[in-house]
Structure prediction request, 220 residues.
Amino acid sequence: MEIERPGRPEDLPAAELLWARWALTAVLEASEKGENTPFVHRSGAWIDDEGLHLDDSGCTWWTLAPMGGGRYALYGEDESSAVKWHKPAIDMLAQAPDWLPFERLRDLLEGWELGCVYWYEDGAWARAPYPQGLDDDGLDCGMSRYAVRAEAVDLLVNADRGVPRERALRLLEAAEAYRVTASEIEAVLDDVYADADAYTAGDRAAVLRALERTGLSGPR
Prediction:
């Protein structure tokens, strides 16, 4: 599934599938240092009480927040987005449901930190209407790594803690089915990360804590 520019709600996979792919990278990137790094200084993919996060420390940042009852909020910014600079201004919260995290979103809007907002309910994504001629909202550059399955696999293979492709495929299949076990992840830690520089017992514990928080071992 490819993402158009600007993004369309139908370009995104089901939120549960997006969560699974993103969550797997957050698990494999987890570390003791990351857990102890303040939110504003973190980078990569991680999970916390708010949801899943992605930040490349430069061009793109995103959050996928579960809102209960099968509903999700996806929001963030990529430098390619033309939404917040558009004249006349685009209301990114137009037609939004009342369950979105409005306090958080309005804080971001006031700080000129938000590029687009999508929401998921009853099995479908939606967003505010865009005007004709808008070039891009940043969804492609930000989310194609998880929306496009081949890119999700490449992300696992080419990461700093890269996983061999066949193993990455098996892990992704397990994640998408919400049946990743702690023993599978521990096997990856033993086989793939054993010789990684500065990989510690604290990092192993952080990875397993992230796995538990993501819910990849059972249905969300």
